[in-house]
Amino acid sequence: MKILVASAWPYVQSVPHLGNLIGSILSADVFARYARLKYGKENVIFVSGSDEHGTPIEIEAIKRGVDPKSLTDQAHEYDKELFIKTWNISFDNYTRTESEVHKKFVREFLLGVAKYITVEEEELPYCEKDKLFLPDRFVKGICPYCGFEDARGDQCDRCGKLLTPSILINPKCAICGSTPVMKRTKHWFFDLRPFSEPIKKWITSSEDMPENVKGTALSWLNEGLKPRSLTRDNAWGIPAPFPGAEGKTIYVWFEALLGYLSATLEYFTKRGEPEKWKEFWNKDTSRSYYFIGKDNIPFHAVILPAMLMASSTDYTLPTVIAATEYLLYEGQKFSKSRKIGIWIDEAPFIMDVDYWRFILIRMRPEEKDMNFTWTEVIRIVNTELNDDIGNLVNRVITMIMRYFDRRVPSPTNFKEIDEHLLERMRETVKKVGEMFEKGKLKGGTELILALARETNGYINQKAPWDKVKVEKEDAANTLYVTFLVVRAIALMLYPIIPNKAEAIYQQLGLDIKAETWDSLMKPLDPGHIIGKPEPVFKKLPTDFDKKIQEIIEKIRSDVERNRPTLLK
């Protein structure tokens, strides 16, 4: 079985903040690392890339008097280095929408589904001051459904309804604030209507799809699907391939969705295996997992499946679309202009990236909006990482060194308490895998932490420091069992905190890269020699939450100064 892992493509106009990171790329990385352990590296591909077309960048380039690509070239490389080198994101291919492979694939794909594409004239908002047609996101107004006063022309951020600029109340140009006029223009539309029933059948029959995704998709379907505009009157984008569509470009959402396919194709083309990509998209040989924010659910649960169904190729439909709710920052929305939040090029100057990865997965808003607070950060690092996990590792390694001369003792006759913990370990490994495969990454960490706490309690109850003097066999059993549990915990944490998990494995005297998810069920070789015990984690100061704003202010100006032009 081939496993495709995809994260939503970050829009290259801004540096992602922590909420963006956990909503897509970090979550996808955790799952991809798990999938490689479970299914084998050769059977998993993890793709994403920079979404760099559209009006915002075109307008920014016009203001600066430069070519849009000169702006996105710098921003793409900056983000790519942040993801891969700083945050240790294990992409197989992090590409971009300016990739020649992508542009060619999009044009050919759309020509291949031409029977579902129609040409229509429509009235669209035109800004007479800026002299351009305004794409959806560049018209703002009041949502006609819920009354939200800052709704965009494509979707309302409050109620999630799909919108068009023409139905907004009191529409304004998002660039200059003037009231647009309506002018006629010709566009190409992808007809979603033929796919309403097939999508409903697919989404309702899925046993793995999260309920928030099902609910949003069914809401769209019940309201009735309509043709959706494929083209825009933009200069910056992929030129529309249709006869008579000169001067039009492809709407960024349609092309970004097709980027999952083109990124897979590009990866194998560069490897000299241009046909192998199809194995990861064939419905009979693959499963696919998408990690996105909840505002992107309609595009991934309705429009992407419709396009895949429209093709003559039997593409695999999404197995799981793991859509997070919103992460708030101390009760507020992240805002660059108001300096609310932490951005991913700032965070590594505050603490170790593996700490951040664990913190964000623990705060992952899987079922409802979550609030990032520094008080919770301190609790997670000091209690969960340091006490529950780090203390367990140190206790086990230190006692093996002290009482058994660095050799993991061989077990003899297990007692019921020993067998119980080993069974709990096996159950946890199985259940964590099941949680991960449903996109419940935070839920998986709850199980890992529960096992760590139970193991600490087991050590306290067994007291090997006393038993080693009077019943050495029992002490040997205790340390053998806890060694296996620590190994299991470290490997289950490897997708989340790869560097720290590898450090734990070094202390165990094992090579984490030689492991698989299922190898945790195998016993240990007799006489195994451990490494040197060293603290893996350290606590944050208890007043860290009071000092953090001063720390942020010290680093922020330097970080902003070093950003590329487009991201400043």
TrEMBL record:
Its EC number is 6.1.1.10. ATP binds at residue 336. GO terms for cellular component: aminoacyl-tRNA synthetase multienzyme complex; cytosol. Residues 3-396 form the Methionyl/Leucyl tRNA synthetase domain. It catalyses: tRNA(Met) + L-methionine + ATP = L-methionyl-tRNA(Met) + AMP + diphosphate. A motif ('HIGH' region) lies at residues 10-20. SUPFAM superfamilies: Anticodon-binding domain of a subclass of class I aminoacyl-tRNA synthetases (SSF47323), Methionyl-tRNA synthetase (MetRS), Zn-domain (SSF57770), Nucleotidylyl transferase (SSF52374). Zn(2+) binds at residues 143, 146, 156, 159. GO terms for molecular function: ATP binding; metal ion binding; methionine-tRNA ligase activity. Pfam families: Anticodon_3 (PF19303), tRNA-synt_1g (PF09334). CDD domains: Anticodon_Ia_Met, MetRS_core. Residues 408-543 form the Methionyl-tRNA synthetase anticodon-binding domain. InterPro entries: Anticodon_Met (IPR041872), Met-tRNA_ligase_1 (IPR023458), Met-tRNA_synth (IPR014758), Methionyl/Leucyl_tRNA_Synth (IPR015413), MetRS_core (IPR033911), MetRS_Zn (IPR029038), Rossmann-like_a/b/a_fold (IPR014729), tRNAsynth_Ia_anticodon-bd (IPR009080). Belongs to the class-I aminoacyl-tRNA synthetase family. MetG type 1 subfamily. This is Methionine--tRNA ligase. The lineage of its organism: Archaea, Thermoproteota, Thermoprotei, Sulfolobales, Sulfolobaceae.
